[in-house]
Amino acid sequence: MEKKIAVLRGDGIGPEVVNESIKVLERVAQKFGHTFHYYDIIGGVAGLEAYGDALRPQDYELGRSCDSILFGSVGDPRKYTFTGANGTKKYPSRKEAAVKALASFRRGMELFANIRPAKVYPQLIQASPLKDTVARELDLIVLRENTAGIFYAGKYRKEIGGELTACDECVYTWSQIERHARCAFDLAMGRKKHVTMVNKPNAMETGVLWQTVYEKVAEEYPEVHYETMLIDGCAARLVSRPGYFDVIAAENMFGDILSDLANSAAGSMGIAGSGDIGSEGKGLYECAGGSAPDIAGQNIANPIAEILSAALMLRLSFHMTVEADAIEAAIVKVLDDGYRTGDIMTPGGKRLSCSDMGDAISEAI
Ligand code: NAD
């Protein structure tokens, strides 16, 4: 099979971990007789520095025209503020911010389903901050809504009554929730048949609509155990009984927070892969963590999250199940052999750099 993959390495550890993913993809291509063509896009802070734009229109079109996008991470808090003409600090507008590179693809391509698996590898139980008995049960997916909600609706920052005031509206339509609900129930049908829809309907009007739509869709999936849970209660249960959950379905901001919580409970953001999927089958695949400026440029980041994201791309967008299984098995083999990056170091583990971990996983395929 031949596939076109747009590659946006981005900022911080983005280029380091994406390079290791491509190394693994090339090993898969060689072993299974595929050809992957890569098309580079410079975006995020790198794009702002190169072109004054976190994602140029022609680069958006290039990404959209490919079969999928392999994405590192964008943003650099060290460069988050600009100095205004009078020397005072000025915060960037959303159009100027690095996150535009990601948001443009998510919104423009309607990649509404952000699939974020979190599970504890038995070999990494000691890397989890949870007690062994609690951690070993953790195996869930957070399905985050990705194209609407508080991140995208009406916004302003202005002076009202002599006081600087900011506002972010949260807006959802019936159809946006309905497509998300179908995706959640379909995912659950292939797993433990349990959907927990997380929200705050006692305080938010959008929460009431989420509940109404989800209840309606749930009727079409009688085999799935469906329930709702308040966001605060869900956060508490994620650390006290993570094994309770199967598919956690959440609107944009709640899903963003819960998925990082679940992945950190699993041991590290460095093992958290994710995919943004739309109805066309194309996707954007990225490690769930950020650009990790604290460890960038040192060749010590964990590439497993980005490599798992590449495996997700093969599985979900290219329907290459055997190939995706081969990558995941190679990761398990490398962990079994005791190899670790610093973030998942366990007693007796053999420490590898980011690039050595990429080599080890490629060789294990
Ligand atoms: P972060 O995920 O970058 O880092 C949080 C912690 O996790 C850090 O200690 C970091 O070292 C560690 N970590 C993350 N990925 C790792 C990996 N692969 N291996 C080892 N350790 C890893 O979150 P942050 O510090 O809040 O954000 C840093 C920047 O990233 C910000 O500019 C933020 O806006 C951006 N960000 C981008 C994305 C994205 O592009 N999708 C997502 C989240 C944050």
UniProtKB/TrEMBL annotation:
It comes from Flavonifractor plautii 1_3_50AFAA. This is 3-isopropylmalate dehydrogenase. Belongs to the isocitrate and isopropylmalate dehydrogenases family. LeuB type 1 subfamily. Its EC number is 1.1.1.85. Its cofactor is Mn(2+); Mg(2+). Keywords: Amino-acid biosynthesis, Branched-chain amino acid biosynthesis, Leucine biosynthesis, Magnesium, Manganese, Metal-binding, NAD, Oxidoreductase. Residues 4-361 form the Isopropylmalate dehydrogenase-like domain. Pathway: Amino-acid biosynthesis; L-leucine biosynthesis; L-leucine from 3-methyl-2-oxobutanoate: step 3/4. It catalyses: (2R,3S)-3-isopropylmalate + NAD(+) = 4-methyl-2-oxopentanoate + CO2 + NADH. GO terms for biological process: L-leucine biosynthetic process. GO terms for cellular component: cytosol. GO terms for molecular function: 3-isopropylmalate dehydrogenase activity; magnesium ion binding; NAD binding.
